[in-house]
Fold this sequence. Notes:
Elements: E1 8-12, H1 17-28, E2 32-37, H2 40-50, E3 54-58, H3 64-77, E4 83-86, H4 101-126, E5 132-137, H5 150-170, E6 175-182, E7 185-186, H6 196-204, E8 212-213, H7 214-225, E9 236-239
Parallel strand pairs: 1-2, 1-4, 2-3, 4-5, 5-6, 6-9, 7-8
Amino acid sequence: xxxxxxKIAIITGGSRGQGASHVTKFVEExxxxxxxxxxxxxxxxxxxxxxxxxxxxxxxxxxxxxxQRVVEETEATFGPVNILVNNAGxxxxxxxxxxxxxxxxxxxxxxxxxxxLGMKTALPSMKKTDKASIINVSSINGLRGAAGNSAxxxxxFAVRGITKDAALEFxxxxxxxxxxxxxxxxxxxxxxxxxxxxxAQMAESVPLKRNGVSEEVxxxxxxxxxxxxxxxxGSEFIIDGGITASN
Length: 247
C-alpha cells in the first residue's frame, strides 16, 4: 500500500531538481502524476523512466490556456485531480536599484501568478473528489527578507498569503491548502559552475551545518498530499535546517 494510492496529482516544474524528486516520490507512493515544465527533454526522459503512472506535459505556468489544457489532459488520462503541487519557480538576484520592471514582472508571473492560475483552474476538478490537497511551494524568503532578492522575496510572500486565503475559501469543498518553505536545498539551481565555495559557506550558516536535499522537501510535500495531514490547512511548513528559528 502506497501513501498516495488512488490519488491523481499535478506537479509543476517537475523536470529536474526538487520537482523531479516530488514526481518520483509521488509515483513510488502510488499516485498517478501529470507533471509539467518548459524543460521538455528532461521531462520526457523522467516520464519514460517512471512508466505509465507518470505523464509529462510542456506547460507555461503563466498562461491560463496552458493551465486549462493541463487540467483537461489530466482528467482525460487519469481522472479528477486530488493533488496540486505548485512547484515551478525562478530566482533572480539583483538589487532593487538594478532590477528592471520587466525582470520583476517575469519573476512575479512565474512564482506568484502561476499559483493563482493553478488553484483557480484545478478547483472545478478537485471539487469532484472526496479529499484534495494543494501544496504551494514558497521559500524561507516568504517568511523573511533577503537583500538583493526583492522580486523573489515579494513573490514568495505572496504565495504564503494566497495560500491562507485559498485555505479559507476551499475548506467547504474539503480541499486543504498549505505552503512549504524550503531553505537552502542542494539542487541545480544553486549548483552552478564556480559556486562550490559559496555553497559550502551557505551550509555553514545553517544551524544543522548542512544544506538540505530534495528528498527532504519531497517527504514534507508527500505528508501534506496524503491523508495523514487531514487536519492541516492554511499553514506554513518550514524545511530549513533551523535558519529561521531565530527570526
